[in-house]
Amino acid sequence: MAAAGSGGSRADNGYGGQQARRRKGPGALATGYLPSRCPVSPPWLVIAVGLVRAYLAKGSYHSLYYSIEKPLKFFQTGALLEEYLLIAKYLPGIVPSSVVLTAFQVMSRVFLTWAVTHSVKEVQTEDSVLLFVVAWTITEIIRYSFYTFSLLNHLPYLIKWARYTLFIVLYPMGVSGELLTIYAALPFVRQSGLYSISLPNKYNFSFDYYTFLILVMISYIPIFPQLYFHMLHQRRKVLSHTEEHKKSE
């Protein structure tokens, strides 16, 4: 799923992260790696700039996907390794996300990028593609800024507020774009038999990609509320802790 934040909570700046970090720091690779990508997360900034330039050149937001197709595929696929390094290995005590839920989000993005948008060319002109791309881009720029300033022990309140507030809009926006794109792909998948395997065959196995996509859409029903309400809970926890800290000063 697309939007902000990926639910057991890992420690994070703003709600007990200091103790967790004293127990186990993020490691030299993380402290060197993240600042090199932020505060504006260069890969996703490339996509943001590409979208803006294409819009100014065309004077329309329609079919802007082609202007950022290559960097989107590259950066989103690279996120598989990146998330493993950041969350599973080098950032214990920094990333406030369930590894399982975060992995699901990354995999769902890669799936949307390759198995839907890349594979079904007809949906690439859909406005819903731009919807989730914009949501992903803004979310990632904010997220990496948050991680970097946290590692540097200098987290501006504005970035913390953005991290735990803008998801309220960005998350539904991204999920809506993903679902609408999958829905738009369904008739083309059914007509072409894309990725489907019919019986009989030597493996005695069948697979209907059309049905699989429908099941993917249904899976959003239990997962989206879990992630969304988890982030709402984190927002109350983090921002209320910040307000209390300001008052105590």
Largest sheet: none
Q: Percent of residues in helical segments?
A: over 70%
Shape: globular
Let me know the average pLDDT.
81
Q: Which segments are poorly predicted (pLDDT under 50) over 5 or more consecutive residues?
A: 4-23, 36-40
Ends apart, CA distance between termini: 39 Å
Output the radius of gyration: 20 Å
**Count of β-strands:** 0
Strand content: under 5%
Number of domains: 1
Q: Give the count of helical stretches.
A: 9
Q: SSE order in H/E notation?
A: HHHHHHHHH
Enzyme class: lyase
Transmembrane segments: 94-117, 129-152, 164-189, 209-229
GO cellular component, one term: endoplasmic reticulum membrane
Organism: Malurus elegans (Red-winged fairywren)
Summarize the model shown.
Helices cover 71% and strands 0% of the residues.
What are the defining features of this structure?
single chain, 249 residues, mainly alpha, globular
Structure description:
With 249 residues, the protein is an all-alpha fold. The protein has one domain (39-197, 204-240). The chain has helices at 17-23, 28-37, 42-58, 65-90, 99-118, 127-151, 157-163, 167-192, 209-248. α2 (28-37) packs across α6 (127-151). 37% of the residues are buried. Mean pLDDT is 81; it is low at 4-23 and 36-40.
